[in-house]
Amino acid sequence: MISVTYCTGFLQKRVMMSVTYLDAAATTRVDPRVADVVLHWMTEDFGNAGSRTHEYGTRAKKAVQQARAQLAAQLGAPAEELIFTSGATESNNIALLGIAPHGEQTGRRHIITSAIEHKAVLEPLEHLQSRGFEVDFLKPDQHGRISVDAVRERLRPDTLLVSLMHVNNETGVIQPVSELGRILRETSTYFHVDAAQGFAKLPEDLIGPIDLISISGHKIGAPKGIGALLVRRRGWDRLPLQPLMFGGGQERKLRPGTLPVPLIMGLAKAEEIFRKEHQQWLAGAQKFREQLLAGLAGTRYHVNGDPEHSVPHILNLSFEGVDAEALIIGLKGVAAVATGSACTSTSYTPSHVLTAMGLPDEIVSNGLRLSWLPSQIDGFEVGDLAAAVNQLQP
């Protein structure tokens, strides 16, 4: 029985390794160099960063301080402006729900966002609507981009916050967050950016005057369960955020609890790797994108998203006359792909992102997202994808 179990597990692993992973927008494999760092801080330097009476705690505290400074520097900020969280979802909730009491106290209950945000932004904002906040959900153009003018036109004296994602997780379209940051900094309106998909990949967009930035580790080769929220000062003034949880003084009292030192060090290592290998990543991601599109030239497809304002590693396609779910089944054993956000994929509902773009129903219902890291696509044959499409395409 033991040998059968071992053999079954081994064969399953071999099968999984033969399937090319094209769902990196959902999550990424932990980089082996990151795993080594995480294991070290789990098994050797395993101290609590809050322990100040011995060397184990001192080393952990010093390491966390260094990691905090490194990650904040990626965003053009000092270390004290970054707090660690469990990921971008928690960061979004702290930013959106944490600023709400200030809006209630000052009578500023107007919020601007877009209809293509991740559910980790849309659902907290829906909760705020139930508390009396007025939320404008801006629609993008047909290419999936929100215009700066559309945001500017909706600004009012009582606008508390603008929340706009950096890179759309379904289409890969880059939003003009850098330009908006400069504009909103001249107003009393705060600006929050969900940068789960763009952190470390488009660093120049996030170093400007954006008040709140949510980041996630598992999109860049770090473990799941670690992220951060940047809370940038305005001059000498701290943003008036209120905590959502209580029970300790950690993380400027905004996020209590024992710091997960191994995960924090893993996030810092992943960011370091991405920063040092950034040009290699860009070139590899773009090359694979070009190979994909060239290999699909014999099929009939529609690119969902603005190719002039997109990251190189996310591609959303709808194939004429092809059901996306049928295509995913056809690719089983070849490639792991998705129809949209991993957080809502079990619902099998049409993409709210493609719907908001005003695309035809056939395109919306059959959008297929391909996303990758260059280091995880060795051996993939684009011809296998084209063959699967041609088999289904009338």
Mean pLDDT: 91
* Rg from Cα: 22 Å
**What is the strand content?**
5-15%
- Termini, distance in Å? 48 Å
Q: Helix coverage percent of residues?
A: 25-40%
Shape field: globular
Instruction: Compute the number of helices.
Output: 13
Order of helices and strands: HEHHEHEHEHEHEEEHHEEHEHHEH
Catalytic activity: (sulfur carrier)-H + L-cysteine = (sulfur carrier)-SH + L-alanine
EC number: 2.8.1.7
InterPro entries: Aminotrans_V_dom, Aminotrans_V_PyrdxlP_BS, Cysteine_desulfurase_DndA, Cysteine_dSase, PyrdxlP-dep_Trfase, PyrdxlP-dep_Trfase_major, PyrdxlP-dep_Trfase_small
GO molecular function: cysteine desulfurase activity
Description:
It comes from Streptomyces cellulosae. The chain is an alpha/beta fold and 394 residues long. The protein is 40% helix and 13% strand. Helix 2 (32-43) packs antiparallel against helix 8 (261-276) and helix 3 (55-74) packs parallel to helix 8. It is globular and about 65 Å long.
How do the helices and strands line up, and which of them pair or pack?
Elements: H1 2-18, E1 20-21, H2 32-43, H3 55-74, E2 82-85, H4 88-106, E3 110-114, H5 119-130, E4 134-138, H6 148-154, E5 159-163, H7 177-184, E6 190-194, E7 212-216, E8 227-231, H8 261-276, H9 278-295, E9 301-303, E10 314-319, H10 324-330, E11 335-336, H11 352-356, H12 361-365, E12 367-371, H13 382-392
Parallel strand pairs: 1-11, 3-4, 3-5, 5-6, 6-7
Antiparallel strand pairs: 2-8, 7-8, 9-10, 10-12
